[in-house]
Amino acid sequence: MSAGWVEDELKAALDEAYQPAPWLLSRCMGAVRQLRPARPGQSARAWLAGATAVLIAASSIAIFESLRLSTSSSHPRPQTSGGLPAYALAGGCAGTVLTDGLPPTWAQGGWSAPAVPWPVPWTLGTGGEAVAYVFAIQLVAGSSPRVDGTNNKVLWVAKGAPPNFSVDAHPLGLDHPVIKIAGGPSIVDLPTAGCWTFDLTWGPSGHTASSAINLDVLPAGSVPPPIPVQLLRARPLILPTIAPGGACPVSPVTLVGGVAPRIGTPLRLGFGSAAGPEGAFAFNKTVLDYITAPASPTVLLRGIRLDGTGKLYFGRPGLVGALAPAIRVADPQGSEVPFYSDLPLSVDSSSVFYTYPTSPGCYGIQVDAEGFSEVIVFDAT
User: Fold this and answer.
1) How many Cα atoms within 13 Å fall on the side-chain side of residue 239?
2) Which residues, other chains included, contact 217 with Cβ-Cβ below 8 Å and sequence gap of 6+?
3) Is 257 found in the same domain as 199?
4) What is the pLDDT of residues 339-370, one digit of tens each?
5) By the 8 A CB rule, do 277 and 380 touch?
6) 55 located within any domain
7) What is d(CA 318, CA 213) in angstroms, rounded to the nearest whole number?
8) Coil, strand or helix: which one is 10?
């Protein structure tokens, strides 16, 4: 038996039960490596007793350090805003967790109206002075663009915008291969799938600092997961403003089959035989279809009245999920139908729902999906 045996056992146990950050595991391994081989004449039992003591001590270091860091200011937890929760998102590995919470203030430069949910998944590196914004949602092995036309885009940020900012990527626990990546905005194309460690370094010569981030890479050819609805909801509304009494800038209307009006492009809304819904009526049956299929099937509808007071709701009986209805309206049969202030949909050949403008007027609907945001303006008569 040797220190190497204890090291292997400790690493396996911690990986299985706790998955500490790589730098913390390295610190524990350093303690174990101080063990000397058994002395001549020393029994295996006596040597194992000493090794066990070191094993327990090293494990305690790992647990204590991780608990300390989880409550320290150098590893802040994601913040929330307006009562909205922050979510853990897929894409991290070996202790790294992506989130849509608020990043540190120093990492918010260039972003407008900081709020939860944050529009791009991000994670904080070890040491608390580096952030990765994963625009790719999740990395995919191979070259960009990926099969859905998107890229493996990541924005690396170090506190204080220091000089000599660089990133070295390598598979978790391996020294090679090493992929060199520039700090700042980058396309992170990696050769193989699995958990990769990104070692970030920065600062003037002789005064460098570092951090580590672990990200999961999907197999080459994988279709990246759809953008989470909370990230679509975080996008700002880009609807036009209209003075009371001003003309409504209605979106172009096309006829499907020469008879069915559709408004908008590439996603289109149909309100039956009219170019817009009836105001102050809840059960305007609406069809959402598309000219060009979106890259991701997930879309989010939000809307407001543009020329005065009034609200816009979307009704969808049987909507599955945790979305709480804003109001409920009784239909002609007496059943209560839930209506929502925004509506996530999975677009297939078509999606049907109700549009409820609470008063006549000019309304706008913003349709957000991965890769685009579309505005559709109509009159509710």
Assistant:
1) 22
2) 139, 140, 141, 190, 192, 193, 194, 195, 196
3) no
4) 999 998 877 555 889 999 999 999 999 998 87
5) yes
6) yes
7) 41
8) helix
